[in-house]
Amino acid sequence: MAQRRRRRQHNRRRAKSRSAIVGPLVLAVLVVLGAGAGYAAWTHGRSGASAAALDDGMSPTTPPPDTGTATTPASPSARPTTTRPTPRASKQAPKTHKPANVPSSGSGAFHTADATGDASGHGTIRRYKVEVEGGIDLSPSVAAHEISDILANPRGWTADGHDGFQLVSSGSADFVIKIATPNTVDAICGAAGLLTHGEVNCDVGSTVVVNLKRWMLGSPEFKGPIEGYRALIINHEVGHRIGHGHEGCPGPGKLAPVMMQQIKGLDGCKANEWPYDSSGRYIQGPPVR
Q: Of the four, 19, 141, 158, 180, which is 20 to 30 A from 111 by CA?
């Protein structure tokens, strides 16, 4: 009996010893597992917040902020799909004078303006006529007087002191200024090997051919009034008549030479329709071949 009692006491002491060891171990495991579950939940919440922030700032309907710095996503699969906003037109379109109708073709026959004027300038006085194609709504006489005023302007070619001009309606003439529809301009200039594409003017032999489209609508490169652009057309083409070639922009912010092909772009220059400034200085740029 005594031996059996001692054995039971021994087993109880062993059980208590095991409980003392296993209990803390189980508790430690539970703590670790609990902490792991808490960390997983915390990181899940952080990941969700980051994704939401990306969705809010980089959604397909909202363009990303333009910081000026390119960035690379962490992975290709994480690259958001973005749609750039469609460019909008300028709030204010360039002002141009647009008549009711600028026909592409006329009658092909020309009417000489019944208008004359006094000679302007000094030295060589060149006589010229103005002709307007039939079938268009433009008075030859009105156009002729406008051209005469341009060539007599003190900022025009007469400022050089050795060139002058006189509008005539009959007799001999040194050159003729024709105002024609785009198709007729293409035919006249094209016969001389010049391609005007229904858009620009040309100088052929003793004839200055002015495109009606440019005369009535001006040019996107010229922001001034239509009368100013007409002065540019006449001064540029008559400039060729008296021996001037094409010139380029002399520098950003400076006036464009009248012999610059301003309709092709200003290259930083300011649009200008006169060969000379108000002080009598020639507005010159580098020669262009």
A: 158
